[in-house]
Amino acid sequence: MNARIPSPGLVRVKLAPQIVERLRQEIVTGVWAPGESLPANVLSAKFGTSHIPIREALLVLESEGFLRLAPNRMAIVTEPTIAATSDKLVLLRTLEGLAAELACTQATPAGIDELLGLQGEVERHFNAGDVAGYHLANQVFHRRLVEMSGNQSLMDVHQMLTRHLEWARVRSGIRTELLSGALGEHQRIIACMRSRDGGGARRMAEEHFLVVSEAIIKGLRETRPD
Questions:
Q1: Given 20, 74, 147, 186, which residue has the most CB atoms within 10 angstroms?
Q2: Cα–Cα distances in Å, from 154 out to 86, 147, 163, 175, 185?
Q3: pLDDT tens digit sequence for 83-115
Q4: Is residue 8 part of a domain?
Q5: Do residues 192 and 105 touch, judged by C-beta distance below 8 A?
Q6: What digits encode the pLDDT tens for the residues 21-40?
Q7: In a domain, 9, yes or no
Q8: Has residue 221 got a pLDDT over 80?
């Protein structure tokens, strides 16, 4: 009689991280507006799960600053303030400058060509007046530039802060025409990378990000002054 071979147990995928990712994206893109409540029963029905992973997800999003838990434990979407956004933009500007400098020594010629191709996508969406496509392509460009730094810790912190940047950008109502100068700035960053000019790449990346930061803060002041 053959011994029964035990079948491997099913691995249950944790739901909370998936819910965090979905809700965070919905908050950032404006599906859930500031001041709006996220009832646990509605979220449970939405995701087809119990209140436990919902609660875990809400606690994570509260720790990230995307919502607050009221005394009655109701989750309320927060608003990106000018002060908090300014602080994060200062950090992001420094990180992007450092990433560009590191990328000058880490990026391969093929990687730089890839970045040039991504910049072509940014320009294509800009010229077509495709605001959503432009901002998405721009995010991909910057994420890839940071990845080329080869510094995982830098990438992790940058990703976290970029979520807040995108949230603030959406709330600011920033338009592509405000960032027309960014197209040439991207090209100059790539040129510095080709010549392996780390200092120049860092300076150009920080100057570029300063323009973006000023546009976002200006938009926030016009829509919701602190």
A1: 186
A2: 19, 9, 15, 28, 22
A3: 999 999 999 999 999 999 999 999 999 999 999
A4: no
A5: no
A6: 999 999 998 899 999 999 98
A7: no
A8: yes
